[in-house]
Amino acid sequence: MIELHNVTVRYQTDAPALSSVSITIPKGDFVFLTGSSGAGKSTLLKLVYGAVQPVYGHVVVDGQNVTRMSRRQIPFLRRNIGVVFQDFKLLQNRSVFDNVAITLEVLGWEHNDIKKKVFHTLKRLGIEHKLDVPPIRLSGGEQQRVALARALVNEPRILLADEPTGNLDENNKDQILQIFKEANLRGTTVLIASHDRRVIHSGHHRVVHLEKGVLQESGNVQSKA
Amino acid sequence: MSSQKHNIRPKASTMGGGSKLGYFLSRALQNLRSNRMVTILTVSTITIAILIISLFMLMYVNLEGTIEQWSRKVVVTVYFDKEPAPQDLMSLKGRITSLSGTESITTVSKEEALKRFRSRLKGQESLLEGVSPDILPSSIEITLKKEFRSTDAVNIYVARLKKLQGVGEVQYGEEWVRKFMLFFQFVRILGALIALFLVLSVVFIVSNTIRLTIFARKDELEILALVGATPFFIKAPFLIEGMLQGAVGSLLAVSLLSAGYFTILSNAGNFLTFNPADAGLVFLPASYIAALVSGGVLIGFIGSLASLKKFITI
Ligand SMILES: Nc1ncnc2c1ncn2[C@@H]1O[C@H](COP(=O)(O)OP(=O)(O)OP(=O)(O)O)[C@@H](O)[C@H]1O
Ligand SMILES: [Mg+2]
């Protein structure tokens, strides 16, 4: 489903953000990506949805070579990938509903179907009562859920989440993780970037570790809680 | 992962082009409403710009009308070798009329010539008391078609005219015509240059104003791109917005112009006009109004397109 072959990413700076990273994530896998701040976690996710291009190597998603994709093809790649951004990227002057609906509007869904599907998804995440509220009047945890709802609403084949439990309490973290697991059970390939120990050790998952742009496979981590 | 588990309905294919346009339109209207201040700013900019251009057009149209009136005075006067018999005069008139370049002809009889002379001697008419009309010759005055009023054309025309039998002396204001046409040409070129400059600055100002509105919503552009919107899908509502603003702005400008014209200019026309033959200032013809409104729409469209280029990079 997601393959990186000897991928090197370099921003303007001298030190590469990722050096010669290779990884294969099969369909239906659930993977944690760890590493300290600046290790290159967000960069790796951006490679998958085509927001960053490598200087060497290539990225294959769902059988398609992202590195060789034209600008016209990138939108269609992204329609199969739900992303929860590190900074949420919610539209503060629009309602929760609008924020989630945007994913389906882009796909050309009809208004009534959008209404039903958005409501259903928000309900699954327990924030359906905030439908008409703008995100600016939501708590951090609630915003987190809206961002997750937007990523999940079209049931994407791949779900990428960048630090999705950043500012949540323990209870909320478990709930959010539960939603990821549910999506995974439905067949979605999940890749979560996080340095939250508790989250990483929350189950029987594959964990890969990034350190200064170099990838190390940590193998499966058993629940040690 | 089996495809049954992902029941993404292929809604995109069931949605016709019409409802897509409807979606873009509703988003454009929604955006205009929620960004009221910036919308008002953009529309006023377009209104002022189109108003300036239309005032300029109004001046040009009236100037051209006046010039057209003036150039009617490019009259070629034909005198005769000897007083022609009525039927000879008739046939000569026929031949002159069929000469290419002739717009209209008037016969000036001896009596008419004396009357004109008399009126020129206002207050001293007594000098002409008892003078018989025979002292002045009769003549034919020819008004030329518009395109025959330039120096070269008049010369060619006169050369052909002189070849007609019965035509004696021919008079025409050669020097005056030449200078006049040069001036007219100069006015035209100057007008075109000023118009070009105006249009360019309007596009520049409007695209900058629209850039403000797009800059205020760059988050939205980014998110749309990240959830897989095509560049067309992202741009369409903004382009529609630009066109709507252009339409409203230019319609406002045209309304203001006509209101102003009909209340003030048409009343004051008799004082302002420099052409006594003209009753007053004329308003812009319908084709100019149509051009102004479509120009406004086009400016809104180009303004949006130019500003969007800077933001849609992903
Ligand atoms: N747009 C950018 N321009 C220049 N350098 C960048 C850019 N984005 C990231 N970097 C650099 O690339 C390196 C990896 O950044 P990245 O955002 O992938 O780290 P991260 O692992 O996600 O960190 P964090 O846990 O703090 O989110 C960092 O050194 C960062 O400074
Ligand atoms: Mg990061």
Task: Indicate the topology.
The complex is a heterodimer of chains A (225) and B (314).
Chain A: E1 2-9, E2 18-25, E3 30-34, H1 41-48, E4 56-61, E5 64-65, H2 74-78, E6 81-84, H3 96-106, H4 111-124, H5 140-152, E7 158-162, H6 170-185, E8 189-193, H7 197-200, E9 205-211, E10 214-221
Parallel strand pairs in A: 3-8, 3-9, 6-7, 7-8
Antiparallel strand pairs in A: 1-2, 1-4, 4-5, 9-10
Helix pairs in contact in A: 3-4, 3-5
Chain B: H1 11-14, H2 17-34, H3 36-71, E1 75-80, H4 86-97, E2 102-108, H5 110-120, E3 139-144, H6 151-162, E4 167-171, H7 174-215, H8 218-226, H9 231-272, H10 286-311
Antiparallel strand pairs in B: 1-3, 1-4, 2-3
Helix pairs in contact in B: 2-9, 3-7, 3-9, 3-10, 7-10, 9-10
Bound molecules: adenosine-5'-triphosphate and magnesium ion.
Magnesium ion binds at residues 41-42, 86, 162 of chain A.
Please explain how this structure is put together:
The complex is a heterodimer of chains A (225) and B (314). By secondary structure, chain A is α/β, with parallel strands linked by helices. In chain A, strand 4 (56-61) and strand 5 form a beta hairpin. The mean pLDDT of chain A is 90. Chain A has helices spanning 41-48, 74-78, 96-106, 111-124, 140-152, 170-185, 197-200, and strands at 2-9, 18-25, 30-34, 56-61, 64-65, 81-84, 158-162, 189-193, 205-211, 214-221. In chain A, helix 3 crosses helix 4 and helix 3 (96-106) packs parallel to helix 5. The model of chain B is unreliable at 1-16 and 273-279 (pLDDT under 50). Chain B has 2 domains: 20-69 and 181-311, no CATH class; 75-172, Alpha-Beta Plaits. The longest helix of chain B has 42 residues, at 174-215. Chain A binds chain B through residues 1, 27-28, 49, 51, 71-72, 74-79, 83, 85, 89, 91, 93, 102-110, 113, 150, 154-155, 157, 186-189, and chain B through 1-2, 5-9, 11-12, 14-15, 19-20, 23, 34, 219-220, 222-231, 233, 314. The structure holds adenosine-5'-triphosphate and magnesium ion (MG). Adenosine-5'-triphosphate is lined by residues 11-13, 17, 35, 37-43, 86 of chain A.
